[in-house]
Amino acid sequence: ERFEVSLRTIYRDIKSLTNAGVPIYGDPGSGYSLVKDYRIPPVLFTREEALSFVAAEKLMFQYLDKQLAINFSSALSKMKSVLRTSEKEILAVADKSVILKGNYNNFNESVPEALSILLTSISAKQIINIKYRKKDSEANEERRLEPVGLFRQDSFWYFMAYCHLRNDYRQFRLDRIDEIRLTNENFTRIHKDLKHFLNQKKKHPTIKVIIQVEKSLSHYLQWERDYYGFISEKELENVVEMEFACRNEGTYFLRWFASFGDHATIIEPKELKANFHSFLKEQLEHLTKQ
């Protein structure tokens, strides 16, 4: 009655556990019990599953802040402890063979526990206090926040939160946090999930940009082009034609285009081509003054 199941269901489940090797015994009038000191055997991992630990640990240290990476490593060590000796030896060899190069760890090193505190705040629904630096500002200001969710975009971690100072939802970047503290105060309201707020983000007006790039160079642009509004590409005879939805001002796009402009052509719009000529002229004038 307590669990709202039938007696038949209980008998069926007891039989399933017995068939699985779980030592269960029954006493008339007192019910069923497990054999004393019985422990569920540890989960066994396949070699392929065990090898995935190596990549996972390397990635976590690259993409998480210091404290959360330490927490993950500790949890992973406990999982590794149930591996067979032969699997541990394979992991030791594989660990030396995987290196992630590059700096993906864009955090404020003076606040190594920011991600951990944010996750605790979100799961426990507790308010945080932070000191935050706005873009192009050295001074920080105090904010009292109710975090909704975390997301990573363009090599940086962000979080969405209800801000008590602004009485509205705002987006914050983790590397601009100078101080963070978890309070004992509970959230003051019920929040919608993160996906709702990301779908509501302002859409900036864009212009259609088409460029043609030499085939020998085009594949080198794959790692960066998404940041500049890449939509599609098609191969022509000697070039690859790419289409972008570029923000109206186009400044960031032109700076990027200048890095390979001697191997590419702006097809449209004509205004962007003229802006590119002006941009290069300004750069040249600046260099001649140095």
UniProtKB/TrEMBL annotation:
It comes from the Bacteria. It holds the Pfam family WYL. Residues 113-181 form the WYL domain. Residues 1-32 form the Helix-turn-helix type domain. This is Transcriptional regulator. The lineage of its organism: Bacteria, Pseudomonadati, Bacteroidota, Sphingobacteriia, Sphingobacteriales.
